[in-house]
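Reviewers of the previous submission asked for a worked example of the structure-prediction workflow described in the proposal, so we include one complete record here. The input consisted solely of the amino acid sequence. No template or homolog information was supplied to the procedure at any stage.
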Amino acid sequence: MFDRYEAGERAVLVHINFTQEGEWEDLSECEMLVSSAGVTTLQVITGSRQAPHPKYYVGEGKAQEIAQAVMQTEAEVVIFNHALSPAQERNLEQLCQCRVIDRTGLILDIFAQRARTHEGKLQVELAQLRHLSTRLVRGWTHLERQKGGIGLRGPGETQLETDRRLLRERIKAILRRLEKVAKQREQGRRARNRAEVPTISLVGYTNAGKSTLFNRITEAGVYAADQLFATLDPTLRRIQLEDVGNAILADTVGFIRHLPHDLVAAFKATLQETQEADILLHVVDASDERFRDNIRAVDDVLAEIEADEVPVLLVMNKIDNMESQQPRIERDDEGIPRIVWVSAMEGLGIELLFQALTERLSGKIVQYQLCIPPEHQGRMRSFFFKNRSILQESYDQQGNLLISIRMQQADWSRLEKREHAVLSDFIVT
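From that input alone, the workflow returned the following structure tokens.
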């Protein structure tokens, strides 16, 4: 469809420092992104500007320097650590005689490599097509030619118009399929809400250790690696919390500074798990000197997907890389857990994380001594056993079940509705 240079695995990396704070990017993070994409960096070109140049993004002299570096290193692709306009990409490609990819295109490429599920692949394709559709505007000259050949001569649509139409149709088809996925996810969420199962969603900057923590808590065996965007497809697992019972833990895609809007839109169905969660575990790489900036970047994305109202428990991870930090819970003035310091890799502080989650999720706890006659023991004991609320049990000489139970007020209220005729008679005062 496109008359563009082929991209390879050997790249010249371009990073510009801007005095405007909104344009700021991190060079080391870009190098990690390039490495995660499986690309070898041959040379890094840096520079400073007050604002992007409209033609090449960089100045004319710097653009010539990039082209010279491409020729000397025989690089196959130039990767910019910034968002380029379609015209800037095209101008740079003509000058460098090789493929030029911006930060958004690089992130999309990593996502395309990591997608495993049908839903993940659809979401990535949707984001790529939306990104590509802007590259068709005032596109390459061959796309403006009208189609020729028998049956196609005359005032038919140009190749560019055909490609635009095909893109629109493909995007519509993907949106329809993703709508079905969203409905299925919604049904699952409704079922969990009916069962009053709380959902805990892991969020955080990419490579903060979310999947390692997820595996440590659930023993799920989810792929975890020291690279950006190791997790793409969401994973849900059931866990047990004392005084809470069953809960659902969701591992989600990592966030990044200036996450492309196309990706946020495409992954709406996935990120819905974050919006609908009862609490967010915001995992932070505490050993990263830029961790405060990363927290702000995650908060920005949460605001963008309208999940900034969900309660948050901050998890300061990777304390094994720090000398002075020990596992602990930090509480606010009301005694509510706000921050937990852990090491998911070493398993330090995991019991404290469970304790903090229990405190944040559990409502009012009730405790009763019950004396249940034989004719009601089966179903009553079954309910308490499934709810993991039995503290102690024994039988008296008449065969009555003497049982001590501890459970959430909400579960007790649900049982009272079902057994209102007899339950009050069982309570031992």
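The chain has three domains: 10-101, 197-361, 365-426. We consider this example representative of the routine output the project will generate in years two and three.
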